[in-house]
Amino acid sequence: MTLVQFKNRPGATASFNNFMDDFFPTVPSLFREAFKTPASKHFAPVNVKENEQGYILDVIAPGFDKEDFKVNVEHNILTIVGEKKAEDKIENERLLRSEYNLQSFKRSFTIDEKIDADNISAKYVNGVLSLNLPRLADVKEATKQITIS
Length: 149
Known about the structure:
The protein is mostly beta strands. The protein has helices spanning about 15-25, 30-35; strands spanning about 45-50, 55-60, 70-75, 75-80, 105-110, 120-125, 130-135. It is elongated.
């Protein structure tokens, strides 16, 4: 017989996180964090790519319409908010099973001074919100010839 000891006693005060830590101590912390995320914190996965012109952020958000997004830049912080409005119920229709649920999300990114915030563009195609963050054009000072008198 094996004796299993808990860090916290099971019962009303024990949480699922402690359960995971006690029974699966070898699970990498990356996967344990997924269980610890509160249900109220939802996020959409983002891919960030770099090219010669700047950066491209691809936000994976299927099921949304382009009107459901709000994107703004304030104090060098790019904020992307996706908020899906509740669908109207049809009176002669009864929902028998619902396996998906669109969650609102908010993602923020700090952008540096090399990004041209005035020319950021966005498009939404096939469930992917793609933001183009162009770099500022490098302004090289012209060489000034000084004449000696």
